[in-house]
Amino acid sequence: MLEIRALSKRYSGIPVVDGVSFSARPGEVTAYLGPNGSGKSTTVKMITGLIERSEGEVLWKGRPVHEDWEAFKAQFGYVPEEPQLYTYLSGEEYLEMVALLREISPGEAAPRIDRFLRLLGLHSDRLTLMSSYSKGMRQKILLAAALLHDPELLILDEPFSGLDVSSALILRRLITMLAAEGKTVLMNSHEMETVEKVAQRVVILYKGKVVADDSVEHLRSLMSLPSLERIFTQLAVEQDPAEVAAELVEAMRR
Amino acid sequence: MSHAVSRTPRFGRLARHFLMRLADFELVAPGGEAHQTAVTGMALLGALNFVIAFILVNREVFAPPAFEKVRGITILGDASLIVALTMLFTALAGALAWDGFFPNKADAMTLGSLPLRPSLLLNARMLAILIYLSAVVLSTNVFTALVLPVCGAPGGSASEILRSFVGWVMAVTAAAATVFFAQIAVQGLLLAVLPYAAYQRLSAFLQLAIVLGAFLGFFLMPSATQSLSTPIHRGLWIAPWWFVGLFTSIRGGAVALPGVYATAGLAVPLFAGLAALVIYSGQYRRILRNVCEQSEAGPGRSAPIRRSVARVLNFLLLREPRTRAVFWFIARTVTRNRRHRMLLAIAAAIGIAWAGQTLAQAVGAGWAAFRQPGAALLAVPLELAALLVIGLRALYAMPVDLQANWSFRITERGGIRPIRRAAVRFLWIVAILPVAWLPLPICWLLWGGTQAVFHSLFLTLTGAALVEVLMRNFDKLPFACSILPGKNNLRVTFGVYVILFTFLCSFVAVLERAMLKSPTGMVVGLCLPSAVLLTMVIRRRMQEQPARIRFDESGQPEFELLQLNG
What we know:
Helix content of chain A is 41%, strand content 24%. Chain A is α/β, with parallel strands linked by helices. A six-stranded mixed β-sheet of chain A has the order 6-7-8-3-9-10, with helices on both faces. In chain A, helix 3 (91-101) packs across helix 4 (106-119) and helix 3 runs parallel beside helix 5. Chain B has helices at 2-22, 34-62, 67-96, 98-101, 105-110, 118-141, 144-152, 158-193, 196-220, 232-235, 239-251, 259-290, 304-316, 321-336, 338-364, 368-371, 375-396, 406-409, 417-437, 440-447, 449-470, 490-515, 519-543. The longest helix of chain B has 36 residues, at 158-193. In chain B, helix 3 packs antiparallel against helix 6 (118-141), helix 6 (118-141) packs across helix 8 and helix 22 runs antiparallel to helix 23. Chain B folds into two domains: 2-293, no CATH class; 327-543, no CATH class. The chains are: A alpha/beta, B mainly alpha. Chain A binds chain B through residues 48-50, 69-70, 73-74, 76, 78, 80, 82, 84-90, 93-94, 96-98, 100-106, 127-129, 131-132, 145, and chain B through 295-301, 314, 321-322, 324-325, 328-329, 332-333, 336-337, 400-401, 403-404, 406-414.
């Protein structure tokens, strides 16, 4: 189980993430939601060790991860929010590099990479530099890189970003299957409909603080609202969408 | 009228944008900030020009009376050196701005969707190119343009000085324009005849060829003082002489090159400029229209030889997976990243040109000079290896796509050791082993087996010691860690190391020549660097902590940037 305990991040004393606590259990998909700038990606980067935490702890299987970062890093797969890649490498070269960095032997990695590329529809572009990949293609490469070493924990930051409908459907199914296998999945997404379908548990973050942490069903019945989107709007959306849209139309003409 | 008013700010803004694109490289300014790049680049070129101007003035002021007799000839030498320098820096500036001349996909995507006429874009881009060329010519000649015409005027009257000044400005401008416009014309022709992917692949090699050619041309060019005794049909092959001829023809005076050089000095830049204009304006619109549909070059399926070499390297030196991953990451970054490729090309080109000059001098002294391993010959591979190693070491510290380094951060394992091993082995494979062992057959033929093998072994050991010195505190992943502006001021450290090791190379070459004279000397010559190397390795291993990779730089800078350019 992944446990987050009172995790905080401050920049020049200003809290971006403020005492966040929640847990993600094996066999479940935990969705970590919030509006832009609420601190979702900062939390994820602290969990993965990409940025230092100001306070709090991250525990994996009951042990603080900072005691042995390397062992923890070997056990998770990560898809970052932005597809930042070395774009002068081809997709195949990048996956080969990640496999070697994950200490997967080339004999084992090559057929696995080949299969991933075929299944994700990238095989014909495997030798093309990633600089000419579309956002969706880069996202697929990131997904393949995260899954290469068969991790126990999957941390997916906006994994559906840029994917076409069929790829998104495949990913949705994949996430459900991996969770059913007993893997722990922590996922950020703005796609409420998808989250509602795949996540068992939802954590909603607003201005750096957790405002809801429960199962989707329980939240629905608790708040007497029909959908996750309505729950999210109630808890974490300040502005009335219709009103802002109307003002934007007006702003276009003045 | 209202149309003209609305057009001017857009034109200016576009020209400025294109100008910044031409100066968009991080070679001379940290972060690649275009304004700072332009100021720093011009300041560096201007500083070099100031030194030359200062030497000229100093010589004129303190020249003995006898100097008057040879002044005319000496000025020819000075003029050819400055013209050659102008051509060298213009060629380098053109190679660095290569990707900014013609529209690319980003231009087509961003500007193509805006309501802008293609002619507006074309004119703005041409203006930017002309400003860029002018900035290079100006900063390369700002001080000497004032000094040389005065020193070189045949008499002291105002009209003679004015003619000399006009002649000189025309000469350096024509020299720069020839090199610059020829590059644009060649680039446009390639774009016209090749598919985009093939053009991209070829243009990478062409940029390297330009850099190498520019340095070789500069180092191997004979001075214009020899032009007076060289037959014209041979002298016409030496481009800088055309422009020195143009200068002397306009200036007049007793010491002047034959008029045919001046004709070439006028005709060639005009032809190059015209060709560039026609090709550029013809190709610009076509490229802007088509570039979005073109597929970009990829690495493709490796050639069998390349695959075999990779397999051998993987088996012999890169068995550990992380070392292998980082080694190939280094190799691909150096060969595919434009900035790193150009920097390495510049270091290699200086080394090769330097070696070429030494060899040319040896050829000039007669083939007998090659029969003995003289200090100058022995220093050639040392200098080449030193320049490559220092150049690569400087490159390791320069980050590429820093935000993409999360791939390494989340897979971090085993500390710095496998990373360091990969970085060191890359230096060995690229810079030390080829330079030490490829010339072995030639050295064997010239000097005999014992001396040739000693030379290669000695070079290997010395190179290894150099690598050990330069990598002693290495705790970063090449290209993937941040640098604190000022802490690693590469322009300063690179220059200091190059000067230091160049002197050291000459000293080591003299030492090697002495050792080659006797078997005892050769034994000492192998034992000494081995002992030094061993001591350094043992010391490093004893000091080495199980360190983590330092992805983020921290601490106080060694050099504080004054930010005088605002």
